[in-house]
Specification:
- The protein is α/β, with parallel strands linked by helices and about 400 residues long.
- The protein has 2 domains: about 25-55 and about 295-400, Aspartate Aminotransferase, domain 1; about 60-290, Aspartate Aminotransferase, domain 2 (3-Layer(aba) Sandwich).
- It has helices spanning about 5-15, 60-70, 80-85, 85-100, 110-120, 135-145, 160-165, 190-200, 220-225, 255-265, 265-270, 275-290, 295-310, 330-345, 375-390, 390-395, and strands at about 25-30, 35-40, 40-45, 105-110, 125-130, 150-155, 170-180, 205, 235-240, 250-255, 325-330, 345-350, 350, 365.
- The protein has a 7-stranded mixed β-sheet with strand order 4-10-9-8-7-5-6, sandwiched between helices. It has a 4-stranded mixed β-sheet with strand order 1-2-3-12. Strands 11-14-13 form a 3-stranded antiparallel β-sheet, with helices on one face.
- α2 (about 60-70) packs antiparallel against α12, α4 (about 85-100) runs parallel beside α12 and α7 runs parallel beside α8.
- The model has no long low-confidence stretch (mean pLDDT about 95).
- The structure holds 4'-deoxy-4'-aminopyridoxal-5'-phosphate.
- The site of 4'-deoxy-4'-aminopyridoxal-5'-phosphate has 14 residues, from α5.
């Protein structure tokens, strides 16, 4: 873009009600309770964070981070392959591999980079990558950067994916999908995708950013919930900045897969290693998440409570049983207005607009945390129910 165009481009974004603005959290009203935050001097209940298990502010997690910082320093000083790989990284990788039942796990600085790393390493020029139409941006960017051609199948439609696998004249190397879709909260048809990938000898990459720590009998995520084995899902991505309340991500898989990523994945190789205190905090969070299954049970119970009350209040819901509960508004303007009205009542619920979601499916993205109270959830439903009376689109949206 020419320099002179920049200002006009910003105006265009604004006219479409698509300007993104940051709000700055300037404190937590109750220390240790992330859901009650202070923004611009106001107290708000946060219903948009991904801190599903309420671990981001856990005193033991924060203590693990600060103790490690005093011992090993705040920064790792170099990339993993130079001198940045530390004992906390090594231990966390072992613990994550054990947690998800894989031979090895490899830490990445972010989930965005983990997806770039795994897709670019497994796919390349002359090959084909298949993606769900609602795949996370980082999966799409991985496919773009890989140099492979990529096609997107209808959202969560395993039959469509299977047809693409069968009919494609090119070699499909990778099929990548979110486990839980970040904006809709629904779960990918993993069993059927796994079967189809096996039959066509394609890598199934599952990004379980929003499932890990929450779903399945023991919180191992959407892959556990679907009763799939490491053989079924040979490349599993998990993020650590959501249910585990810290930061970073990992890819888990066979010894060879991880070794290959260490040799080839540029987003792993050419970046400074995650600070060790972050790894130490994650280790503590992982330990607490396993020791306290009530966190998982609680966030799911709050989700069920919300859905029941929302149905009674005739608030249209999508077909999601995860802590991600979108409320469709249908336009950027309506979504922003609803966000503002909720803000005025003390609720921090963020409007999600294009291009993060397709045009016409603008929404409020409501998420729950084990740290919410029943009263906070009920109060949100009450307010949404008042909004429903005024937002036509909210009433017209298909319910389940
Ligand atoms: N995958 C999905 C499905 C996500 O929702 C996100 C984060 N929003 C990421 C990957 C990226 O993870 P991170 O924030 O650690 O970069």
């Amino acid at each position: 873009m020419k320099r002179q165009r920049l200002h006009a481009a910003l105006s265009d974004i604004d006219q479409q009600h698509l300007t993104r603005r940051r709000t700055t959290v300037d404190g937590f009203v109750e220390p240790g309770n992330r859901v009650v935050t202070a923004v611009d001097g106001r107290t708000l209940v946060d219903f948009s964070s991904n801190d599903y298990l309420g671990l981001a502010h856990h005193p033991a997690v924060a203590a693990a981070m600060s103790e490690c910082a005093l011992r090993y320093g705040a920064g790792s000083g170099a990339s993993h392959l130079v001198t940045g790989h530390g004992i906390e990284h090594a231990r966390l990788e072992e613990e994550l591999a054990a947690f998800v039942g894989r031979e090895r796990a490899l830490l990445f600085s972010t989930g965005y980079m983990a997806n770039l790393g795994v897709v670019t390493t497994l796919a390349g020029r002359g090959e084909l990558v298949l993606l769900d139409r609602l795949s996370h941006a980082s999966i799409i960017d991985g496919a773009l950067l890989s140099g492979a051609r990529f096609k997107r199948y209808t959202h969560a439609d395993a039959n469509a994916a299977e047809r693409m696998l069968e009919e494609s004249s090119e070699d499909v190397t990778v099929l990548a999908t979110d486990g839980v879709f970040s904006m809709d909260g629904d779960i990918a048809p993993l069993s059927q995708l796994a079967k189809a990938c096996k039959a066509h000898n394609a890598w199934l990459v599952v990004d379980d950013a929003h499932g890990i720590g929450i779903l399945g009998d023991t919180g191992r995520g959407s892959v556990e919930q679907a009763h799939l084995t490491p053989e079924d899902v040979p490349a599993l991505v998990g993020t650590l900045g959501k249910a585990f309340g810290s930061f970073g991500a990992f890819v888990a898989g066979s010894r060879d897969l991880i070794e290959f990523l260490i040799q080839k994945a540029r987003p792993y190789i050419y970046t400074t290693a995650l600070p060790q205190p972050v790894a130490a905090a994650t280790r503590k969070a992982l330990e607490i998440a396993q020791r306290e299954p009530w966190r998982r049970e609680r966030v799911l119970a709050l989700t069920t409570r919300f859905r029941k009350a929302a149905r009674e209040a005739r608030i249209p819901l999508l077909d999601s049983n995860t802590p991600i509960q979108p409320i469709m508004l249908g336009s950027s303007q309506a979504a922003l207005q609803a966000q503002q009205e909720l803000l005025d009542e003390g609720f921090r619920v963020i409007a999600i607009r294009a291009p993060t979601v397709p045009r016409g499916s603008e929404r409020l993205r409501v998420t729950f945390s084990a740290a919410h109270t029943e009263e906070q959830v009920d109060a949100l439903v009450e307010k949404l129910s008042q909004l429903r009376a005024r937002y036509q689109t909210l009433c017209e949206t298909e319910s389940e």
